[in-house]
Design goal:
This protein is of the alpha/beta class and about 400 residues long. The chain has a domain of about 160 residues. Helices cover about 70% and strands about 10% of the residues. It has nine helices and seven strands; from the N terminus they run E-E-H-H-H-E-E-E-H-H-E-H-H-E-H-H. It is elongated and about 175 Å long. The relative contact order is 0.04.
C-alpha cells in the first residue's frame, strides 16, 4: 500500500500497478527531454533509437492500459450483472421467506386467537359456574339463617322436629301403621303414634328437644357460665323426660314406654358423651332417646314386628290360600297327565302312519323294478296237404 497525497494505491491492484509504471515512464521521458534541452548537442543515434523505442513502449503501454481498462470495465459490468442477479435471487428468497414467515405468523396469530377465544369461553363458563355457586351459597346462607330463625323459636322448632320425624317415619313404615298428631284419652296430642300390636302396644314418639340449653352449653366461656349451662341442660332434659313419661305413657292405651326424638345428632352425641346419667334416667322412666339415625333403626325393628303381627293375623287366610294353591297344583298335575296321554296316543298314531308309509314305499319300489315280458300272438294252424301226413 503506497499513499501519495490523499490517494492510496494498492500494489496488488493491476490498474494501480499499470498506472505506477506509466507514471514512471512519463517521468523518465520528462527527464530525458530536460536533459536534451539543457544539452543542445547532437543526440546520439542510440539514444534516438531508445527514445523511439520508449515512445513505442509508451504507445504499447497506452494500448495495454486501454485493454486493462476495457477488461476492468467488462469485469465491472459482469460483476454488476452478477450482483444484480444475486440481489434479485436474494430479494426473491427474502420475499419467499417473508411470505412464509408472514403465513406462519398469521397461522400462529390465528391459533393464538382461537386458543384465546377458547380460554375466554372456558373462563366465561367457569365464571358462570362461580356465579351459580355464589347464588347457591347465597341461597344456602338464607336457608341457614331461616333454619336458625326456626330453631330459635320453640314453637317453630317443634314443627321442624315434627316434619323431620314425619319424613323418617313415612320412609320406614306403611302409611296405615302410624298416626301423626294423635290425641290421646288424656287430651294430650302426641307428635306420632305407632300402632304396634299388644304387646307392647301403641308407642308414642315426641319430637321436641331442649335446644336452648344445648346452645347455652356451647356458648359458655367462663367456668361459671359452663356450670350454669350444665345445670340448665340437666334440668331441661329431666323435665322433658318427665313430661313424656307422664303425658304419653298410659296404662291400657299405649305401650309401657315412649321415644324422645332429637332431630340433632349433635345433641344426641352430647347427651351420651357428657350426660350419661340423663340417658339412664330416661331408661328408668321408660323414655328412650333416639336421634335420626337410631330412630330409623328402631322403626325398621318396629316394621318387622308389624309384619310378623300381620302375618299372624292373616294366618287363617294364608292357610286357606295355601289349600287353594294345593288344589290348583293338583289340577295342573291332572291336566298334565291327560295331556301326556294325548301326546302318547298321537305319538303311537304317528308311528303307525310312518310304518304304513314305509310299507307303501317298499311296494311301490317293487312295482317300479318289475319287468313285463312281451307275449307273441298265437299262430294260425297250417293247411293240410294231400299225400302228406299231418304233423
Amino acid at each position: 500500500m503506497i499513499r501519495i497525497g490523499g490517494t492510496e494505491l494498492d500494489l496488488n491492484d493491476p490498474v494501480a500497478l499499470v498506472a505506477m509504471i506509466a507514471l514512471g515512464a512519463l517521468v523518465l521521458v520528462l527527464v530525458l527531454l530536460v536533459v536534451l534541452l539543457l544539452r543542445p548537442a547532437r543526440i546520439p543515434a542510440p539514444l534516438t533509437h531508445q527514445l523511439y523505442a520508449l515512445s513505442n513502449g509508451q504507445e504499447q503501454l497506452r494500448g495495454n492500459l486501454q485493454t486493462v481498462s476495457d477488461t476492468q470495465a467488462n469485469a465491472q459490468t459482469q460483476l454488476i450483472q452478477n450482483l444484480e442477479s444475486r440481489l434479485a435471487t436474494v430479494q426473491l428468497q427474502m420475499q419467499q421467506q417473508l411470505a412464509q414467515m408472514q403465513e406462519r405468523t398469521n397461522q400462529s396469530l390465528h391459533g393464538s386467537a382461537q386458543r384465546t377465544t377458547t380460554s375466554l369461553t372456558q373462563l366465561q363458563e367457569r365464571l358462570a359456574s362461580i356465579d351459580r355457586a355464589q347464588d347457591n351459597i347465597t341461597k344456602l346462607s338464607g336457608d341457614v339463617l331461616s333454619l336458625q330463625d326456626i330453631l330459635s323459636n320453640k314453637q317453630t322448632r317443634g314443627a321442624f322436629g315434627e316434619i323431620q320425624l314425619h319424613d323418617i317415619v313415612s320412609k320406614a313404615l306403611p302409611a296405615d301403621s302410624y298416626t301423626m298428631q294423635k290425641t290421646l284419652s288424656n287430651n294430650r296430642r302426641a307428635d306420632c303414634l305407632i300402632h304396634l300390636p299388644n304387646p307392647p302396644g301403641p308407642i308414642v314418639i315426641d319430637a321436641k328437644f331442649p335446644l336452648e340449653a344445648y346452645e347455652a352449653l356451647h356458648r359458655a366461656q367462663s367456668d361459671w357460665e359452663l356450670k350454669s349451662a350444665v345445670a340448665n341442660m340437666r334440668t331441661s332434659v329431666r323435665k322433658h323426660i318427665r313430661d313424656i313419661s307422664e303425658k304419653y305413657i298410659l296404662d291400657g292405651e299405649t305401650a309401657d314406654g315412649a321415644l324422645m326424638f332429637l332431630p340433632s345428632e349433635a345433641v344426641y352425641a352430647e347427651l351420651h358423651a357428657n350426660f350419661p346419667e340423663l340417658v339412664r334416667e330416661g331408661f328408668d322412666a321408660r323414655v328412650w332417646i333416639v336421634s335420626p339415625t337410631t330412630c330409623m333403626a328402631t322403626l325398621n325393628t318396629m316394621r318387622a314386628i308389624l309384619k310378623d303381627a300381620r302375618m299372624r293375623e292373616q294366618a287363617g287366610e294364608i292357610r286357606k290360600t295355601l289349600r287353594l294353591l294345593h288344589r290348583d297344583v293338583e289340577m295342573v298335575v291332572e291336566r298334565v297327565g291327560k295331556l301326556d296321554t294325548h301326546f302318547r296316543q298321537a305319538r303311537e298314531d304317528l308311528d303307525g302312519i310312518g310304518t304304513a308309509a314305509e310299507r307303501a314305499g317298499k311296494r311301490a319300489a317293487r312295482l317300479d323294478n318289475f319287468d313285463f315280458e312281451e307275449v307273441d300272438p298265437p299262430q294260425a294252424p297250417l293247411p293240410l296237404v294231400k299225400g302228406q301226413p299231418s304233423s
